Model the fold of this input.
Amino acid sequence: MQAELQHDAQTYGEYYAAVDLGSNSFHMVIVHVVNGSVQIIGKIKQKVRLAAGLDDDLALDDVSMERGWQCLQVFSERLQDIPPSNIKIVATATLRLATNAHVFIRKAEEILNHKLEVISGEEEARQIYLGVAYTSANQGNSLVIDIGGASTEIIIGNDMQPIHLKSLDMGLAGMLILITITKMPNKISESHLSNEFEAFKRLFRNANYREGVIAQMFYVGAQIMCWTFIIQYADKLGIQKAQAQNYNILAMSIFLTSRFLCTYLMKFISSKKLLTIFAAGGIISIFGVIFIHDIRGLYFLIATSAFMSLMFPTIYGLALHGLGNDT
Done:
């Protein structure tokens, strides 16, 4: 009997469904799997805006919960013919945060006739990475950032393996709510606004500003390339990917520590002089990376983060110095 069931599953395939109750939208996808081949046969997405129903005490209001339940009624009709063991239903940030999430979940499970799992931020990040890796055929090191309605997930991984996972309770819906309830400053009268075209011409003629923009462009490119190159450099030295990522985290920690140190040093050294000193240090460390092809070269590459730390805000400040209303 068991052999016949397995034969039928291989011949005719099986149906699977995944339901994601997000903070802004609810999603459902149904697939048909035959002999390992996955075919998407149905997708539903409804904008529920569940996170918009959170009040100051992080309780969901009745209106937003009702929107969610109505959406799940639609989903339940499509799930009736799918074996319960082939259905996975998860909820994310909003139901992690909501103080009355149990009220929504209880009725949602009644509607769907299925268990609903509220997954952790790290598990959400892991699933996001696996989804991206599977659908985009990831190769090598990858950085995946997913900005959702109430949370943002940041994942660093290699091939199909997520290595470092981070979930932040900050998303688009939350930002929109914050902007909506925040009192904005009064609009400046037209008489106080400079003509945009004239302001652009003045900025273009300002050598200090023009050179600052160019310097900032090169700096941002250098910072991205340095941090991206750490794992590749370590890989060429035979260091495993997971350990190489630890070197990358060390570089970012040095970067952050050095920025605080630079802020303190500016009490005694002018920003221009300090920027020059750190630029020279960065050049020396990069030469070490180029000409020393062993672990010392990797250390030089990590040390470059210390010299980069003050550059973005300092270049920015120096470039805007003396611009007045054109700022």
In short: The first strand starts at residue 14 and ends at 21.
